[in-house]
Specification:
By secondary structure, the protein is an alpha+beta fold. The protein contains nine helices and five strands, in the order αααββαβααααββα. The chain is globular and about 50 Å long.
């Protein structure tokens, strides 16, 4: 099953409207759309001098491995703008995870949900473990259900845009990090620090 088929699936939590990204649409995605999608969650310093765009899947073990180091670097640095791109490409439950995290955004809980979902061990978290992790993180589950119902079309559209952007960039898997002018994948703490330093140096040229 390919990525577009995944996005077209429905889940128990939210019916996803099958608005499939066409190749023509993907070719129209520009840098500004990738960096400044108004619906994409943003962490770190919104006015940071370096932007990291993170394409992630909640069932990706390499995303989970990198997540604590990325969080640490963003927090310690203080001048990194982090743009989250939920890109559920690995399984049906990946879509559910993306929907839950994006639904939590409407109660100001995206990053709490994101970290909770990234903290689930293994390659294929099921719905029960995802919901349990969200609740344990302090997400208001009643509010979440209401927001998923109310904002379903917006969430679907954002996932479609993320897919189109990934296609336009020729991305092949998660995690993918765009750090300033650089593209990279799984990194540890030292690796994130180095690529951020390199991005700053390049921007200063």
């Amino acid at each position: 099953m390919n990525r577009r088929d995944f996005i077209a699936l429905s889940t128990a939590a939210l019916a996803v409207t099958p608005l499939l990204a066409s190749p023509a649409w993907a070719q129209q995605v520009d840098v500004n759309a990738i960096l400044n999608d108004p619906e994409a969650p943003v962490g770190g310093n919104p006015k940071g001098d370096v932007t990291i765009v993170a394409y992630l899947d909640y069932n990706c073990i390499y995303c989970k491995k990198s997540a604590p180091d990325l969080e640490r670097v963003v927090k310690e640095d203080g001048k990194i703008r982090l743009v989250y791109k939920d890109w559920p490409i690995l399984s049906e439950s990946s879509i559910l995870g993306a929907q839950l995290a994006l639904g939590a955004k409407y109660q100001g809980g995206y990053e709490k949900a994101h970290h909770a979902l990234m903290g689930i061990s293994g390659r294929k978290a099921d719905q029960q473990s995802m919901l349990k992790a969200m609740k344990a993180a302090g997400i208001d589950m009643t509010r979440l259900e209401a927001d998923l119902d109310a904002h379903g079309p917006k969430i679907t559209a954002l996932l479609q845009r993320n897919l189109a952007q990934a296609d336009s960039l020729g991305l092949t898997g998660t995690p993918t990090y765009l750090v300033g002018p650089f593209r990279t994948t799984t990194l540890d703490y030292a690796g994130f620090k180095q690529v951020v330093a390199d991005a700053r140096a390049r921007q200063a040229e």
